[in-house]
TrEMBL record:
Pfam families, sorted: HTH_18
UniProt KW keywords: DNA-binding, Transcription, Transcription regulation
Domain HTH araC/xylS-type: 157-257
Name recorded for this polypeptide: Helix-turn-helix transcriptional regulator
InterPro entries: Homeodomain-like_sf, HTH_AraC, RmlC-like_jellyroll, RmlC_Cupin_sf, Tscrpt_reg_AraC-type_HTH
């Protein structure tokens, strides 16, 4: 089994096994800055929460999902709190049948079990059994539908500057007009281009950014009241109500489910 200290040279070449699975175990938060490699990568977790980012999107990934990043695509990653996860590195010649753009997928029971089994393989050539299981993993990555779990980023440099500032501080309560003045763009252009480039209104995008940060803080065991106030909500009840309307459960119930899935990932099937 490979671990999180996998030699970078192994994932910067398509020589060797068609897939390499690296396991990661950590007790505290950990991050990897922007980087790229010639293999495609599937990020997933058994316990804990991941945030994965590329130039035009960010995903907060619970144990029920995984994120696919194609070869040579610059990306960054961050694990929140205690974490047990894995990365499946796919040789570039095997990637044409896989998603051409980064995306989140909902883990199937088959893909979850196959990757966990592949994580126990020793590094080196695959035998006939391993080759067949590797083909199953590739088929699952290629056939599972993308899940709209992420936060798309605008392309316009002025809008991206605003988006980056809000991701850095989701509690920033400046109005659309204030942000437009700050970024040297008209109110109308900001509003129109945000929808055109992200699919969300400015207000809806900001709420989604706050809720994604809330998921990260829930995984880090921050109290719900602190999360609400840290993210700029007027009262905890306002935050709890919005969270329930978005995810169908309260923040406390979501955290309990996240912990239960971490203990028994199959419980979500």
């Amino acid at each position: 089994m490979a671990d999180e200290h996998l030699d970078p040279a192994l994932i910067n070449t398509s020589d060797g096994p068609v897939i390499i699975v690296a396991a990661a175990h950590q007790a505290t938060e950990r991050s990897a800055g922007p980087h790229a490699h010639c293999r495609g990568q599937l990020f997933g977790s058994v316990q804990g929460l991941l945030t994965i980012g590329v130039d035009d999107g960010v995903w907060v990934v619970p144990a029920t999902h995984a994120v696919w990043v194609p070869p040579h695509r610059v990306h960054w990653a961050r694990a929140h709190g205690p974490f047990h996860g894995y990365a499946v590195y796919v040789a570039e010649p095997a990637c044409p049948g896989l998603p051409a753009a980064p995306c989140a997928i909902r883990m199937s029971g088959l893909l979850r079990e196959a990757t966990q089994r592949a994580a126990r393989w020793p590094l080196g050539p695959l035998d006939n059994y391993a080759e067949r299981l590797a083909a199953v993993i590739l088929d699952e990555i290629g056939s599972l539908p993308a899940d709209p779990l992420g936060l798309p980023l605008p392309r316009d440099t002025r809008l991206l500057r605003i988006a980056d500032a809000l991701l850095a501080d989701p509690a920033d309560s400046r109005s659309l007009e204030d942000w437009a003045q700050w970024a040297a763009i008209s109110d109308r252009s900001l509003s129109r281009r945000f929808v055109a480039e992200t699919g969300f209104t400015f207000t809806a995008w900001r709420q989604r950014a706050r809720l994604m940060r809330a998921l990260e803080l829930l995984a880090e065991a921050v109290p719900v009241t602190h999360i609400a106030l840290d993210l700029g909500y007027s009262t905890p009840s306002t935050f709890i109500g919005l969270f329930r309307r978005t995810f169908g459960v309260t923040p406390a119930v979501y955290r309990e489910r996240l912990q239960r899935r971490s203990r028994d990932p199959a419980s979500d099937e």
